[in-house]
Structures are given as C-alpha cells and as structure tokens.
Design goal:
The protein is an alpha+beta fold and 584 residues long. 60% of the residues lie in helices and 8% in strands. Strand 3 and strand 4 form a beta hairpin.
Length: 584
C-alpha cells in the first residue's frame, strides 16, 4: 500500500512537471495543486506562440499510453472538448515497443494453459502490430486456419488504473477551485474515458462483439468480420480468424473493385445502424480491408455502439428532418434526446439550426458532407448546453468516417441515387401497416390508448372534484432549496445571538466589582470562534460541496461503475428513458 502511494506521488510529480513544461503552470497554480501536495513549483518555461490545443497534444504524447488513449477518445468526441482541441488530438498515434519475448511467452502460457507450440501449429513471435494496450501476432491454428492473436500487455491495467486515480484527483480539484472548468466537465470527461478504456482492455468482451457481428453478417456476405476461436479467448488474449485483404491505399480509386466496395459500405452501414442496432464505432481506413470482389473486412471491435429501438426511430426522424430541411423538427428532436443542465431557449436553437440547414439548401444530397453536417449539429447542441448521448456522437463520427472513405473509393458516386433505396426502406419499415414492428402501428396503438384513457380519466377527475377528494401536489426543487436556506439562516441567527450573549457577558467580567479575567477571556474566545466558524463556512461551503471525499475515492474503493461494465452516462440514461416512453 505504501509502495503504491509513493508510486502515485512520483507519477503525480511527473505529470505536473510535464504540464508546467508545456505552459499549463498557471492553471495548476489557480487550482493550488502544488500547495495541496506539498510540492515546490518547477520553473515554468515560456509557452511560446503555440495554441493550447497543440500544447495539450504534446503533453498527452509525452505522458504515455493512458494519456494517448485519452487523447484519441477526446479527438472523436466534440461534445466533450472544443473542436480546436479535438482536431489537434486526432494525429496522436498509438504505438509501443514489442512485449519482451519472455513476458509474451509467460502471458500465453498462463492464458492458454499450455505452451503456445502445443496449441498453435505456428506462432510468429514478431508482432504485426504493436500498440500501448495490446499487440497482434500472426499464427496458424491446429486445424490449419490462419489466425490473428491479440495479446494484452502485462501490467497495463495496473498502469492505467494508477493514472486514472491521478486523473480523477486532478479533475475533482479543478472543478472545485477553477470556476470555468464546469463548462467542459473534467470529471465527466475522465469518467467517460474510464468507461471506454475499460471496455477496450477487456478482450473477452471484444470476442463477444466479434461473435455478435459475425453471426449477423455471415449470411450477408458483403462485409467480413473476424470470427473468435472458441477456447482461445480470455480477458487477456483474443484469437480470431485472420483477414487478408488490402489497405485502402492499395485500392485504385474509381475502379470496379472500389465502386463495389463503396456500395457494400453503404449497405453495411445501413444494416448495422438501422437493422441490427449494433455498429462498429471506429471504422477508419486502418480498420478496413478490401477484397477484389468488393467485399470489405472490418477489424478491431474494441469500440462498438448499441442502439435501442427508440434511438433508431429518433435517428430516422432526425435524418428526415435534415433532408426535408425542417428546423423545428430537428431542434425539438435534439432537445428531446439531449440533457440540459440549464434552461435552453428552443427558439434560438431552432434559429441556429435553420441557418445551418440554409447553407445546404442549394446543394444536392450528393454534395452534402454527411460527417460535417452531423458534426455541425453536435457543435450547435454543445453551444446551447444540450448534452448529446455518446451513442449519437459515435454514430456521427462513424458515418463521417465512412462518408470520407466512400468518396475516396468512388469520387463519381451519386450519393443521392445510392442511398435512395435505403431511405425508401426506412420509410416503409416505419410506416408499413403489415409490419408489426413498424412505427405506424405503434403510433396507432398510442393514439388508440390515448382516446380510450382520456375520457375515463377526465371523468374520474370530475368525480373527485365533486366529492372533494381531489388533491394537487406541487413539487418545486427551488422550494426545498429555499427551506434549507431558511433553516441555515435560523441556525446562523441562533449562533449569532449566542456569540453576542457571550460577548455581552464577558465585558462585565472585566469591568465589574469582582473581575474574572479567565471567564471573560473564555467568553471572548468562544464568541470569536463562533464568528470565525461562521465566516469560514460562508466562504468555504461552495468549495466543500464539490470537494467531497466519495468522488475522490470513486476509483480506488469501487464506488464508480466497474471498468469492464458499460454504464450509461446521466445524459444517455435520461434520453433512453424518454425514448422508451415514446416507443411505448
């Protein structure tokens, strides 16, 4: 325990030195971090003319794997950080030296329960890819199949957990003492990163994702997904079929192969999002492989998004609102799916969305950049303090990435013509009366229930009013706060009177016929203590509300969601609850 604490303190000192080195010392000073930790502040060099976003990218790159992963996450989440920072973090590359041969063999023997030679017909010791969390080796199974074996780095979870503890500490400290930090919610950012990296480090979960995708796409044939090998997958090891294919750079733009691949990507994206509700959240070109017949292979299923029926229905309506350029519909949908921390002016949001849609008014669907359009919509939501759930942001990022790949494969593709069949299918699926899952029947069911229930409930209300049994309860959050303030004011007045009484009683003890200096001094000291306590409480209460012990210890003592379990953020949970009610 002592060794762990000393290690954390040394790591904290290293992080602070790197932050100061790159010009963030003033922010640390405002948070009084050096004073709280009893550390001397290093000399801060000049930050030069580099913008803060580029300096942050250099900080994360210098601090190692955990921080590089955090930068990669933030680069895909414009809802968490401003766009200049997201753009500066996108070039961060995740690479690391190979695992030493002895350590690699030790991990393989522990996870396989036998020597690798006894399990694989061939295992290449040189990795074909080496990242900070895991590295990938090529192998051959006992049945002759070519395999890719992903091995997690030994000790990486302990390293990441220690860095996360420090990040939680710094984030809570910033929120407590730097007022502007509430605009970008540093604790929420760290918590989201905690969830994401926890999922990525669980290779058993990635194997389950592979299995789910492989089952869905086995009969479709246009997208290829690696299949996990039964009995050779654990939380530290993932064995899967090897996908050959070629990289996007090796595909001739506009060729027959490229045109087929572009259409297969369009159809595969539609099936993942609107049919399966399960989509690859990071389909960048490095995770794609292409085959001569136009098939496309998908790799790396560490990041996967899941959509409920209500979410898919909302996406359809949102897409139709954008295509038909209906700003009122789009604004109300954005307001409904998001979570607002403050009052949002729906009229201003609608006006901004209308201006955004006007810029695409004279363009055809094929000329519209889907990724840019969705990104601008999310930016508008952030500007109006509407927190969009992570799934919608991941869809925006995935569709934008796929859009860029499709345009690179087939620059002459008429996107409107290529996507028209899928738009028609979406409309038919939603409003087809023969489909029991269709939106039309659900809407008719809701209307039928409404028409059946309203007269009955109105009649019940009138009967209760007539009999004097009707009572109305009004719940106002401000009233509870007001009661608490009044109660606190009463306590302060009481102690103020006590202090005044002590002060008034102490004076005669000095000036009376029989002086009692000891009692007088005690009374004056008690009155001063009460006054000092009241003053300190007035100035420190706002800070103490934020600096609670439980959030500081949420990582170490397990009060936060386990890293291996996907937990919805408050914004996501609230939006899913609303969408579930809507689907009912």
């Amino acid at each position: 325990m002592l060794r762990e604490a000393v290690g954390d303190l040394n790591r904290m000192r290293q992080i602070l030195q790197v932050l100061v080195k790159h010009g963030f010392g003033d922010l640390l000073d405002r948070a009084r971090i050096f004073q709280r930790l009893g550390l001397g502040k290093p000399a801060q060099p000049s930050a030069g003319t580099s913008p803060g976003s580029q300096r942050l990218a250099r900080v994360l790159c210098e601090l190692g794997p955990t921080f590089i992963k955090m930068g990669q996450l933030l680069s895909t989440r414009p809802d968490l950080v401003p766009e200049p920072y997201a753009s500066a973090l996108r070039p961060l590359q995740d690479s690391a030296p190979p695992i030493p041969a002895a350590d690699l063999r030790r991990v393989l023997e522990r996870e396989l329960g036998a020597a690798p030679e006894a399990v694989f017909a061939r295992f290449d010791p040189e990795p074909i890819a080496s990242a900070s969390i895991a590295q990938v080796h090529r192998a051959a199974g006992a049945d002759g199949r070519e395999l890719a074996v992903k091995v997690k780095r030994p000790g990486i979870e302990r390293t990441v957990r220690a860095d996360l503890d420090i990040l939680y500490y710094l984030a809570h400290l910033l929120e407590a003492v730097v007022e502007e930090s509430s605009l970008w919610d540093p604790v929420g950012v760290v918590r989201e990163f905690d969830r994401a990296i926890g999922l990525e480090m669980d290779l058993q979960r990635e194997a389950e994702n592979l299995q789910a995708f492989a089952k869905k796409f086995a009969a479709r044939g246009k997208l290829i997904v690696p299949e996990p090998v039964a009995g050779l997958c654990t939380r530290e090891l993932l064995s899967m079929t090897f996908i050959e294919g070629v990289h996007l750079d090796a595909v001739e733009s506009g060729s027959e192969m490229a045109r087929k691949a572009a259409r297969n990507l369009i159809e595969g994206s539609y099936q993942q999002i609107f049919e399966d509700g399960l989509f690859h959240a990071d389909p960048h070109p490095g995770n794609l492989r292409f085959f001569p017949d136009g098939r496309v292979g998908l790799l790396d299923f560490g990041q996967v998004g899941r959509l409920s029926t209500g979410m898919r229905s909302t996406l359809v309506l949102l897409g139709l609102g954008v295509v038909l350029r209906e700003p009122d519909t789009v604004a109300r949908l954005v307001y409904r799916i998001g979570v607002q921390r403050h009052r949002v002016d729906l009229g201003e949001l609608k006006a901004d969305i209308e201006r955004m849609l006007e810029s695409t008014l004279h363009r055809t669907l094929g000329e519209v950049n889907t990724g840019q359009l969705l990104k601008r919509l999310i930016d508008l939501s952030v500007q109006h303090d509407v927190r969009i759930p992570a799934e919608y942001v991941l869809i925006s990022k995935a569709l934008g990435t796929i859009d860029g790949t499709i345009r690179r494969l087939d620059p002459g593709l008429d996107v409107a013509e290529a996507t028209a069949p899928y738009v028609q299918r979406l409309l038919l699926d939603r409003f087809n009366p023969d489909d029991l899952r269709g939106g039309l029947l659900r809407s008719l069911l809701l209307v039928s229930n409404f028409l059946d229930e309203v007269p009955r409930q109105v009649s019940q209300i009138l009967l209760d009013m007539e009999g004097g049994r009707l009572s109305i309860n009004v719940r106002d959050p401000e009233s509870a706060r007001l009661r608490s303030s009044v109660r606190g004011l009463g306590i302060e007045i009481f102690w103020g009177l006590v202090a005044a009484g002590l002060l008034a009683g102490s004076l005669p003890a000095f000036m009376g016929e029989g002086p009692a200096p000891t009692a007088a001094i005690a009374g004056l000291a008690a009155a001063g203590l009460i006054a000092l306590t009241a003053t300190a409480r007035y100035f420190l209460t706002p800070m103490l509300r934020k600096l609670r012990l439980r959030p500081w210890l949420e990582r170490r003592w397990g009060s936060s969601p386990p890293a291996c379990e996907p937990q919805a953020l408050p914004a996501q949970r609230a939006s899913e609850d609303r969408e579930t009610e809507d689907s009912r």
